């Protein structure tokens, strides 16, 4: 009799414990946030809560996890695409829309031109454009001694000789054919004993410091006896001499 009462009491305790566990699980599920079936059906197929078209996996169709674009000035939208920031996209736009601007420089034009002087030209200009800036040739100019297609450079001096000066210079050997020029396109050699500092600086590899050294040597030694004497100047060796030997005279 006692055994039956104990058995009934144990069964009652088990039923009570099962009821308590079931009640606790139900309360946890009620507190878990979620969207009900009725709320989920309120959104059209293929859109999320923000109204943005979604891919099959529910993410925004444009690959942007946040579904938000960045709007730049002018109304253009810059997406947060992988590997490119908004600043990089702006730089690409500037490069594609940019243009190459030619830098100005100055050329001294003298001799038989209408208006000798210093003129501003654009990078890539030719001798004929420099002559046009100076008003063109005078009637006495000997134009055939100039290479009209030669490129000019910053600080260049273009001297237009008259017919008598050109013939005298040719006789003295102070006129030579420039590289890649026609038979009539000649340019004046730089005389080491009479050239100014600016004229010396027109020689390849001769900057301001070396031009000063040439002038000092000329004054202290009474001039150059032959063009090879220029190699006595510090910093001017055979390699440098070979580049300018066709452009100098004494």
UniProtKB/TrEMBL annotation:
Residues covered by the Helix-hairpin-helix DNA-binding motif class domain: 198-217, 228-247
GO CC term, one of those recorded: type II protein secretion system complex
Signal peptide boundaries: 1-23
One of the Pfam families matching this protein, by short name: SLBB
GO function terms (MF aspect): DNA binding
Record GO biological process: DNA repair; protein secretion by the type II secretion system
Highest taxon in the source lineage: Bacteria
Keyword Signal set for record: yes
Region described as Disordered: spans on this chain: 53-89
InterPro entries noted in UniProt: Competence_ComEA_HhH (IPR004509), Endo/Exo/Phosphatase_dom_1 (IPR051675), Hlx-hairpin-Hlx_DNA-bd_motif (IPR003583), RuvA_2-like (IPR010994), Soluble_ligand-bd (IPR019554)
Keywords of the record: Signal
Protein name: Competence protein ComEA helix-hairpin-helix repeat protein
Source organism (scientific name): Lacrimispora saccharolytica (strain ATCC 35040 / DSM 2544 / NRCC 2533 / WM1) (Clostridium saccharolyticum)
């Amino acid at each position: 009799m006692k055994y039956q009462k104990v058995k009934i009491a144990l069964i009652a305790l088990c039923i009570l414990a099962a009821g308590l566990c079931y009640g606790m699980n139900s309360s946890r599920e009620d507190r878990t946030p979620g969207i009900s079936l009725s709320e989920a059906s309120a959104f059209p197929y293929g859109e999320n809560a923000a109204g943005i078209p979604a891919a099959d996996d529910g993410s925004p169709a444009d690959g942007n996890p946040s579904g938000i674009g960045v709007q730049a000035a002018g109304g253009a939208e810059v997406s947060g695409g992988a590997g490119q920031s908004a600043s990089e996209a702006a730089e690409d736009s500037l490069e594609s829309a940019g243009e190459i601007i030619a830098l100005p420089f100055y050329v001294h034009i003298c001799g038989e031109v209408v208006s000798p002087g210093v003129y501003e030209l654009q990078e890539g200009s030719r001798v004929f454009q420099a002559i046009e800036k100076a008003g063109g040739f005078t009637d006495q100019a000997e134009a055939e001694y100039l290479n009209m297609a030669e490129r000019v450079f910053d600080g260049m001096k273009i001297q237009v000789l008259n017919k008598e000066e050109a013939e005298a210079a040719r006789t003295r050997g102070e006129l030579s054919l420039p590289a890649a020029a026609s038979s009539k396109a000649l340019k004046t050699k730089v005389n080491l004993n009479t050239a100014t500092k600016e004229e010396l600086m027109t020689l390849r590899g001769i900057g301001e410091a070396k031009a000063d050294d040439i002038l000092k040597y000329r004054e202290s030694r009474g001039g150059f006896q032959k063009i090879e004497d220029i190699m006595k100047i510090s910093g001017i060796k055979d390699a440098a001499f070979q580049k300018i030997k066709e452009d100098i005279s004494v």
